[in-house]
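REVIEWER CHECKLIST
Item 1: Sequence provided? yes
Item 2: Single chain? yes
Item 3: Sequence as submitted:
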Amino acid sequence: MASTSTTTPALRPDGRTPDQLRSVRFQNHIAPHAAGSTLIEWGKTRVICAATVEETVPRWMKDQGVTGGWLSAEYSMLPYSTLDRKRRDIDRGKLDGRSSEIQRLIGRAMRAAVDLEKLGPRTVWIDCDVLQAEGGTRTAAITGAYVALRLAARALQAKHLIKGDFFSNAVAAVSVGVVGGQALLDLCYGEDVAATVDMNLVMTASGEFIELQGAGEEATFTEAQLAGMLAVGRAGITRLIQLQEAAVAAG
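Item 4: Structure as written out by the authors:
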């Protein structure tokens, strides 16, 4: 009798299958003075996400008569987060372009998660500080920021500052890419460097896209490869949202 064999997906350098996330863990209340905070550990990447509340809104909202509240974000990589010390932005006298882009992305993602009218006339600041970077810092910051924001909302409710829930959807983010011709979920640093296509997905729990950031790295990619990346990305987002909800439920 002829023998049969099945082909199994090749394991990645860290032992994962192509559609497998790195380990993700949340440690809540890491910043006691924040309204809500969490340390997200995603593989070897670690980001502190903290939400603080100001009982005021930006001046432009007052000047333009815009009702409701506002949400903004700041993002930074601490000097010791990478192998070579990273200079602080204050040393350069300005925020670097990458950090500016990422914090705007975090702000857009979180505003897509909330009803700003229900938030009321206040501002929520989300601060994301990278303690250790090993790929996916922006996706970890977005995913952790949502948990910190949910915990802050709970604190506002406990103080009777808001009524009900001001969230409209859960939000998470994950990286996908093509390495060696194969679609991979959640690229680690080595895979990110080797990827011919690199993309970040920011999505809601209902499957809607907030943002797609992707490009071929000195290469093109096909519609079939794009479909493969979106498929593993959607599955990854679903799993991340389950982990977020468990972290929020744990308090």
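Item 5: Key structural point noted by reviewer: Confidence is low (pLDDT under 50) at residues 1-8.
Item 6: Recommendation: ____
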